[in-house]
Amino acid sequence: MKKMAEIERQRQKDKSPAEYRRAIGHLVVDTILCSGCRTCMAICSLSHTGVSHPELSRIQVMGFLREGNLIQAAACLQCQVPKCLSACPEGAIYIDNNTGARVIETGKCTGCRLCIEACPNKAKSPVNYCGEILSPIRYDPDNKVCVKCDLCGGVPLCVKHCPMNALRLEKKEA
Amino acid sequence: MAELKYGWVGKILRADLTTGKLTDEPTGKYAPKFIGGRLMAAKIYWDEVPPGVGALEPANRLIFMTGPNNGTFALRSTRTAVVTKSPVIEPETYCYSVMGGHWGAELKFAGYDGVIIQGKAPEPVYLWINNGRAEIRSAGHLWGQVTTKADEELKRLHGCQSRAMLIGPAGENLVMSSIISTDGHAAAGMGAFGAVMGSKNLKALAVRGTGPVKVARPAELIELVEYTRHILGSKPLRLRGQGGPKGFLKDLVAEKKATNKAGGCWACDKACMMGMRFKDKDVPDGSGQCDEIIELQMEDFMRLNRYTTPDSWEFGRLCDDLGLSVTQVIGHTIPAFSHECHGGTWATELVWAGIWTEANTGLPVGTREKPKVGTREFNAALLKKVAYREGIGDLIARGQQWYLNHIVDTVSSELREQAEYIRDRTIYIPKYHCIWQPRMAREYWSHIYIHCAAHVRQNLGQMGDRWFPLDPPIDVFPKGKRELAVKLFGDERAVDIKIDDFKAPAVILSNHLGAELDCLTLCAGHGNDFPVWTSEVTEDGIGDLAIGAKMFSAVTGIDISFEDMLKQVGERCFNLERAIAAREGRRREHDTYNNFYLGDPLTGKPPKACQWYAARDWNGKEYPAGPAVKNWMNRERFTRLMDQYYTLRGWDLETAVPTRKKLEELGLTDVAEDLEKKYGVPVSP
Predict the structure, then answer these.
(1) Mutate to test the interface with B, among A30, A31, A35 (most CBs of B within 10 A)
(2) Given this model, what pLDDT does residue B567 score?
(3) Which of A100, B192, B636, B684 has the fewest Cβ atoms within 10 angstroms?
């Protein structure tokens, strides 16, 4: 089993960038418009897990109101060469056929969190606080799996519900 | 005990600071009967704070309570109720405040529905609550720090996503206009909550949670939120062209010397905060609630005929740093609103009258000919003196009412009459309803008179209860009001603000809906908000008052009708609070006003309040003395209105104590029993 995973991983690594299918787009947070209300985090966790659990939201927003409401946000870029995908030792990350989103297959994921480490698109809090780092890939300690943005099958609910119109699905040119 | 599967997270933290003991109590002890927020906190207060306990004594409780909706996707489920015995009201009595922000939601994610603080720590401490665990930690390094610094330090210690509820130097020094604030924008104000927290040697409650809040019917909730936003015509203030910066802030943004951002509380579409960052670091960065900024703008407008200046922005930030209430400081200490309408602030008037001089106050008050009240120099000096209780600040810090009484008592006999006049007119009617526009105030009378007389917060200013919409239009939506009046009261005259008919039932309904929102911890906000009386998108213009009940049902899975919700939550809350007030000695004779508002019974002259408001609004437009002066509120009219009000409420006409029948009807039989037997309050059957 382990060997299979190793082979799969190698196969993914060996792919050239052009071989990965493009995602239909990726989420973009306009940090100037964003009010930091975390509606996106509420709807993301509610629609994916059935509970309101912002820690497991696939989009993460930090607001610093005392800094004039400075916003730091992390949303998956659906990278052309997904580092999370090649970092996964189980081959649990695959590219969705419909949306091209880089998705974690919960059944295969063992919760090793190497994808979180590999993710290049993290948000960082201002240095005068604690320099906390936020990854758009989240670890669910209860189920011992990682979760990430799957673009909600093409119509991201966070974009639909954002009251400030601060979120958009940036289409990728073919 | 009820098992709570959804909505509530199931535990209330009790922190006894004297012994350092922390215990978890099941929320099921109170929920679902007492729901949450204001009602649950009032129930805990009823059980645990008997009359005779001093507000600043260790035995007083400081209760922070969220509700089932907090932390879920429910629209505007942002509120946290803070309840305690307030030292600023005379005599000391029950007081609540309901505040926004992210703290309540974070507390739910940390696994607690509420926090009860009791006792007094031997040395300064703060409470750190993290994922079902709590710790009392030493706050030696935080004590004495301004809120901005203390908050930054807490975020450094506990992660930048932690949220803290904290007090500034004003709270530590037991100042009566002190607040408990979170993130520099949301605060429990007006009841000296900061002083109560300071009396317990508690600097902050820092919270971080990574847990879930369960929702019974997620799909229904999502659909309901969409529906609510549709019916509200939801748009953030910024996108509606309101709540943005004006005056110097706008200029700076235009010149790219500052950035302006909207800020929002948890899961709220309104974004009524404004965050400013400045390139020039002489002006402090920060964020402010829309009304705070509107007040600052109006203060500037009155004083200087222009919108926000650097002075007033700094004034707001300084208040925030010191833990003072902007509303209270402007509304009470520097009420510049009345500047144009009435001649001056009470501070200015004291200077004009010669009662305040630079020599006897030690403040840069200027001269009688040219007072400097409201200038940057004066503001900074005054706020610092009040927060640190130096010199004259020590007297003002004991509360505005106390201070003005003190002036009347100590001033020389020839100035006494003027001092009495300044005192009488400063007794506070909330400016949210009245002072915004003198025209509004004039035509609002009977409504406001009933509400402020009978409310538990009486003269502290009551935000939150949004009125049944009246004519002439003061509301955003023009249509639907008449239809609503017919539907609710059976008569379309109910919308006419100039007549007294139907005003008592309208106040009662507004109060119940307001209390319901405070218990469901949904934000009432301003403008087109909850309760949704009218709507632009429905055919008949009538909104949907049942949204609160629907959200509660979707979140908790407990089905409840609108009528039941109104009775079991809104009315129960209002009556329980009145029972508490009765236990603390409040009777009908306390539900009244002074001559300034009701006219002098000896001379028969109209109340000065009419003349005060009927002059000019803040846009500078003149309004000649109108209906209020012709149709002013005299004592007979007031008594008639109140009689009608108490009758409709089911309270005793003599004492204004809820009757046993009413309390039993609301499931408060034990309260009626205790009120009569244990506390000796006359409860009529």
Answers:
(1) A35
(2) 94
(3) B636
Are A69 and B152 a contacting pair at CB < 8 A?
A: no
Question: By CA distance, what is A39's nearest residue in B?
Answer: B267
Total structural domains within chain A: 1
Q: What is the CATH number of the domain that holds A93?
A: 3.30.70.20
Across chain B, mean pLDDT equals 82
What CATH number labels B238-268+271-426? 1.10.569
pLDDT tens across B497-506, in order?
778 888 899 9
* pTM score of the predicted model: 0.91
Q: Do A66 and B212 touch (CB under 8 A)?
A: no
Say if CB B67 and CB B61 are below 8 A apart: no
Domain that holds residue A139: 2-171
Q: B117-121, B273-277, B294-298: which range is least confident on average?
A: B294-298
pLDDT of B241: 44
For residue A51, what is the nearest residue in chain B, using CA coordinates?
Answer: B214
Question: Is it the case that residue A46 has pLDDT exceeding 60?
Answer: yes
- For chain B, state the CA radius of gyration: 24
Whether B230 has a pLDDT exceeding 60, the answer reads yes
Pinpoint the alpha helices (H) of B123-213.
Answer: 147-158, 169-172, 193-199
Contact B64, B115 (CB under 8 A): yes
A154: left (phi over 0), alpha (psi -120 to 50) or beta: left
For CATH 1.10.569, the residue range(s) in chain B are 238-268+271-426
Asked if B273 lies within 8 A of A69 by C-beta distance, the reply is yes
Token representation of residue B175: 């100042």
In chain A, positions 78-117, which contact chain B (CB-CB < 8 Å)? none
CATH topology of domain B11-208: Aldehyde Ferredoxin Oxidoreductase;  A, domain 1 (3.60.9)
**Disruptive mutation site among A29, A37, A40, A158 for chain B (greatest number of B CBs within 10 Å):** A37
Query: What residues form DSSP beta bridges with B437?
Result: none
- Which tens digit of pLDDT belongs to each residue from B407-441? 999 999 988 888 887 777 665 444 333 333 333 34
Q: What is the dihedral of CA B346, B350, B352, B355, to 10 degrees?
A: 170
Question: Least CB-CB distance to A32: which of B210, B213, B261?
Answer: B261
| Cross-chain Cβ contact B287/A65 below 8 Å | yes
Query: Which of B148, B215, B278 is facing A51, going by the closest CB pair?
Result: B215
* Complex ipTM value: 0.92
Helical (H) or strand (E) element with B83: strand B80-86
- Whether chain A has a CB inside 8 Å of the CB on B155: the answer is yes
